[in-house]
Write a structure and sequence with these properties.
Structural class: alpha/beta
Helix content: 25-40%
Shape: globular
Radius of gyration: 15 Å
Low-confidence stretches: none
Distance between the termini: 29 Å
Length: 163
């Protein structure tokens, strides 16, 4: 279960908005985190607190297939991304680097900047205490939860003895 303050963004946030291409000369997660979302909200990286939750509209993570985008979000301390929908490659990249993401149209629409959301990946449940509402989502399979818990696919494989 993760619990955090909401940072709300709109529709079609592409990977170049998440981490501008001019910063792709590094793969250092902490360096990437400093520039996360700076084109649409320059103070975002400075104000996010570990455990906060990013909420967005449709097609979050569209555009380039760069893994830098979910890496920047995770390194910034965002504990989960809730969106109306995700670009498929972003969805896979997020899971592969260990960033929990949950698709819920209703939760994303209802959440407001500053709300506190509670996300339970095992139960498939998002709670918005301000509204007193719960949103059901498909629970993550145990294998996906294990990848996220390990910190990503590479750590999961390294820790499981598989190659």
């Amino acid at each position: 279960m993760t619990k955090g303050r909401v940072w709300k963004f709109g529709e079609h946030i592409d990977t170049d908005v998440i981490i501008p291409a001019r910063y792709l000369n590094t793969s250092d997660p902490n360096a990437l985190a400093k520039h996360c979302m700076e084109g649409v909200r320059p103070d975002f990286a400075a104000r996010v607190q570990r455990g906060d939750i990013l909420v967005a509209g449709d097609n979050f993570g569209c555009g380039s297939s760069r893994e830098h985008a979910p890496i920047a979000i995770k390194a910034l301390g965002i504990s989960c991304v809730v969106a109306r929908s995700f670009a498929r490659i972003f969805f896979r990249n997020a899971i592969n680097i260990g960033l929990p993401i949950v698709e819920s149209r209703e939760a994303a629409d209802d959440a407001q900047e500053g709300d506190i959301l509670e996300v339970d990946l095992e139960a498939g449940l998002i709670r918005n205490p301000r509204l007193g509402k719960e949103y059901r989502v498909p629970p993550f399979p145990p294998e996906i939860r294990a990848i996220i818990a390990a910190g990503g696919l590479m750590a999961y494989v390294a820790g499981s003895g598989h190659s």
